[in-house]
Amino acid sequence: MEAEQVVEKILADAKAEAEKIKKQADDQNAAEQAKLTEQLDEYKKQTELLAKKAGEDEKSHVLAAARMNIAKEYLAEKRKLLDEVFEQARRQLQDLPDEEYRALIKKLLLDTVETGDEEVVVDTNEGRIDHEFIKQINRELGPDYKSDLKLSDERQDLGAGFILKRGKIKTNVSIQVLLEQARKELEIELAKELFSE
To answer: What is the pTM of this model?
Structure first.
């Protein structure tokens, strides 16, 4: 073989080898490109899922905050209504006709008396509960009590109702205290109703 043919053969072999290497590189490049595209698609799906979840989480937080604000406004309105209702009830109890007021105080006294020798402290402007009324209560106390209730000379700003006093022990049965207790119980019920929804 001549030198020229040898050179051509070497060049042909080199060209064939170069094409083979190029084809391998192209195939490898295509495989890498396909793998990269697949990874990018997977990242895109993951990103969309994360974005969707983040959006749903944000939506949940916004809805929860909105529900909480609505609940607060609802509670504030209920409190406002309660204020009005209890203020009206307080005025109505204070303004009861004398006989109805005495009947209420009589019931409260009979329910509250423990020994029968307590002092009854009334409001500074009280005119419906007097010594005669206390004597009547003493007659109704019965044999289990000392029947020695006294109308105290001490007066306090109670509005309505009384304080039952025995030594240093005082039991406040003013209408204001009774209404506050009723209100607390009602507010507990309202809170249960509000936060159980």
So the answer is: 0.54
Banded model confidence at residue 69, pLDDT cuts 50, 70, 90: confident
Q: How many CA atoms lie within 13 A of 11 on its CB side?
A: 6
Q: What angle do CA 81, 107, 100 make, to 5 degrees?
A: 65
* CATH domain 97-186 topology: hypothetical protein PF0899 fold (3.30.2320)
Closest among 38, 10, 17 to 25, alpha carbons compared: 17
* SS3 category, 173: strand
SS3 126: coil
Nearest to 155 by CA among 112, 103, 119: 119
CB-CB contact of 170 with 118 (8 Å): no
Q: What is the dihedral of CA 191, 192, 196, 197, to 10 degrees?
A: -50
Q: What's the CA gap between 87 and 159, in Å, rounded?
A: 12
